[in-house]
Amino acid sequence: MKVCIYGAGAIGGWIGVHLAQTGHEVSVVARGATLEALQKNGLQCVQTQAAEARIKADVKVSANPADLGPQDLVIVAVKAPAMADVAKGIAPLLGPNTMVMTAMNGVPWWFFQGFGGKLQGTTLSTIDPEGRIAKAIPAHHVVGCVVHASCSLDAPGVVRHHFGQGLILGEPADQHGQVSARVQQLVADLSAAGFNASASAQIQKDVWYKLWGNMTVNPISAITGATTDLILKDDLVRDFVSKVMLEAKAIGEKIGIPIAQTPEDRHAVTLKLGAFKTSMLQDVEAGKTVELDALVSGVRELGQLTQVSTPYTDALLGLSRLHASVRGLYPT
């Protein structure tokens, strides 16, 4: 495949270097220090799960997507606040059959494409306020991807992979056990590159389940600087996290995504991962804009749409938004 990584941060770089190692023609849209690093040293990934090993791939890189041309697959792995810029620049990469795989956290702009009952087709004002992303990336291009892995950046163009290999893929309109042929092929390609890839017949369910776990610990870690184990070992904070999760669980039931687990079930899973910094805490420490809207504001809006009261989610959003705003990390 011709594959373009739009956003060669931790997750995009991790996926890109493995696809390049497998023989796919990988290019990258990058700017600034990342552009210079990729031109000079290629895309690198440090594996830390056993003995430390470094893999490297030479990739074509440009700040201008028009230099790279139409692709078979575009992997969008940016933080949600950067999606407006991606929407402005992605057109030269899209051919009639290009897949756009969104490897991102939170509620995506395509969430209600082919899904949601009475809310089907709804555009969330907190995610895509003027519908510009949906216009730039029509729904037939989209393949959703839920990432279950932890990566960070050692330096521009140098990814450190900590743990996890999971990639769950599905098209927004795939329902009732149906998985498209192109998703099945993409799963096969990613599996051949070493990922634990699988297909989902309802990718919104997988998006919501991951969000259910990280919409709380991400902003709380950003405010407190605490790793996930410390957050969940504090009884008062853990109770607050559970209250937010119960609100999100009630919203999920209203939109057709019931969750059988209790918050305590999910806490046990998170604690097994040990002490780690969330992606939002990493962003705060690096002085980067935080993706509160995709993780928290979107859930609050869904509560309003489904008439589910969300006082604990509101409190979490208010505190984390204020924390980020005074640091210049949340756009107003």
How would you describe the overall organization of this protein?
- It is a single chain.
- By secondary structure, the protein is α/β, with parallel strands linked by helices.
- It has two domains: 2-201, NAD(P)-binding Rossmann-like Domain (Rossmann fold, 3-Layer(aba) Sandwich); 206-324, N-(1-d-carboxylethyl)-l-norvaline Dehydrogenase, domain 2, CATH 1.10.1040.10.
- Helix content is 43%, strand content 21%.
- The chain has helices at residues 10-21, 32-41, 83-89, 132-136, 181-192, 203-224, 228-233, 235-254, 263-272, 279-286, 292-306, 311-326, and strands spanning 2-6, 25-29, 43-47, 53-57, 60-62, 71-76, 94-103, 142-155, 158-170, 196-199.
- Strands 1, 2, 3, 4, 5, 6, 7, 8, 9 and 10 form a ten-stranded mixed β-sheet that branches.
- Helix 1 links the parallel strand 1 (2-6) and strand 2.
- Helix 6 packs across helix 12 (311-326) and helix 8 crosses helix 11 (292-306).
- It is globular, with a radius of gyration of 19 Å.
